[in-house]
Amino acid sequence: MKPxxxxxxxxRWAWLKITKMYNQEAAKVGLTQSAGYILLSIDPKNGTPSTxxxxxxxxxxxxxSRSLKTMEDRGWIRRQKDVRDGRIQRIVLxxxxxxxRNVSKDTVVKFNQxxxxxxxxxxxxxxxxxIQIIDKYTVKQL
Length: 142
Description:
The protein has 142 residues and is mostly helical. Helices cover 66% and strands 8% of the residues.
């Protein structure tokens, strides 16, 4: 079987191109695709418990900790104790973090809209069905 005949080839190829495009856009405002994704994962009103961010994004704790430290040093986020449970540390956006989150959100929305303008709603539904099947087999053993 040739690589281009496999599902994972096309997924990886598309994701690498998407990541490159997002990184190019993010670099215009001093971000990376990864930092933008983290900003998008943080609840803009209430913050997000730090223990929930990694699982939400599929990131390893070590990589996430490094990224959060960098983002905190740059003034995009701050850590804050939860008002109901002091054991929980929330990651909260600063004003600058909110601005950058909005830039990231606009970039994602524009990209999605351009793609969705090119395909029918039925094709998008089929795409989601295929992705759900792929997801099912990434959790199960083959």
